[in-house]
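Ticket #4471: structure export looks truncated?
Reporter: QA, pipeline team
Priority: medium

Steps to reproduce: submit the single chain below to the structure queue and open the exported record.
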Amino acid sequence: MSETWRMALFLVVVLSVWTLLHAYVFWSVGRAPLVAENLPRRLLLVVAAALWLTYPLGRILDRPGPEAVSFVLELVGAVWMGVLFLAFVGVLLADLVRGLVLLTAPVLGRLAAPADVVSANLPLGAVALALALATIGLVQQVRGPVVVEHEVHLAGLPVERDGTVLVAISDLHLGSLLGARWFERRLAQIEPLRADLVAVVGDLVDGSAARVESLLPQLRRLRAPLGVWAVPGNHEHYAGLERCTRLLEEAGYTVLRGRWAEVAPGLVVAGADDLTAVRQLAPRGTPGEPLLAGALDAALAGRPPGATVLLSHTPWLADRAAAHGVALMLSGHTHDGQIWPFGGLVRLQYPYLAGSFTVGGMRLIVGRGTGTWGPPLRLWRRSEILRITLRAAAPASPLAPAS
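Actual output as written to the record:
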């Protein structure tokens, strides 16, 4: 399937889901007695159509600057996207409750009628709750990421590199919604962390490399004594991999696409091409697993002895990385679900959703993401910047002599 047809199919699926969510939520709300008896159906249709248009229209018009109409439309549409998802979950639960009330009506007796009236209006409560939760999520996003500290003992790390500080960021999604002012605040957070090396673990760019190219002066200020190391995420592939790679290199970052580099004696940083994109963009009919394994194996082949830190945007194949002797694997991509309870669905595809894990003796840290994608909301869990202190592993205790 050609890239054009693949993108067309993707847009059809996304717009279909977008339309069905609107139809279901507004249909459920429209048949609630309080709405049906007090609001014209035509008004609901106009509101639904206007909200449906906000995000697509904002993306189509796409003009730079927070003063642009397209920015306002996209921002409203992105927030509404989060509200709509939360409303869908709430309305679905409300409809299930109403179904239960109807099924148990013979048992409820005289309580059946009042219970039915209450349950019929539950979709309104679900929408009100969705708005309240979205407000909390918006506040969490505006507060910005937190710095999360980790300490990791790496087998093979030389004693002289003990205490090396690695700062990792991922999923910034710089573009139309998160731009220069937002990134300036992130630089102000990173600078005091005194990083020896910085890892950019994919999805620095969102939808447009051109938008991020205007941020080059700021991107060049991200510096560390042992360098800034980057791998592409799936969004770099969508935005144009070669152009995004060139942008990162012009910013002074070393882009690791299926290769490794020894950043200091005994410390290797390896980078795999994004596994999600490798699978999605593979020619039709190509077996996915060998491609993914090949992408990871290429990044780790022939490296010198010492401790290896693997940057891989998508947290897949952790077992394989551990089998290769990787000491620390850093990933992102999942956003920790970003909006509860979406994380439950994301976990089906990405079991290592967020946090620190031990896999086959290897430490895997999956960041929640430094920015957001789509809805600028973070419900319950704020975005994060990782500050990881690397420690030399303690030598093994000698065996006691045989008696």
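Status: closed, not a bug. The export was complete when the record was re-opened. Leaving a note from the reviewer for reference: The chain has 15 helices and twelve strands.
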